[in-house]
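I'd like us to work through together how a protein chain folds, taking it slowly. We need material for that, and I hope you will provide a protein of your own picking. Go ahead whenever you are ready, and we will take it from there:
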Amino acid sequence: MKVQPHACTVSHIDKSFLDGLAQHIQDPIQLRKCLLPLTTARMLRGTLQKHTHDSLLRLLLSISFLQSAVVDLLLERLPQFVGEEEYGHFIS
């Protein structure tokens, strides 16, 4: 019996992930959340310890094969926010 290679290639996974990310960050609230630092918490000896880490998008930018595609997604979103502060729609 010959094992068939999986039909899902790495490039297909990359495209599916990036398409999902692009759709996710279309929502300004979700984009903002992806730009904020990540916080993790755990209990250690009865004490809650919180740690702050780079944002999701910054982490994705550190992955070499995703970097250019993530930059492109962010640059596509940028014009939607330029000048919005003047009209009171800036996301803080």
In short: The chain is about 45% helix and 20% strand. Helices lie at 10-24, 28-35, 56-61, 64-77. The beta strands are 37-44, 47-55. The radius of gyration is 18 Å.
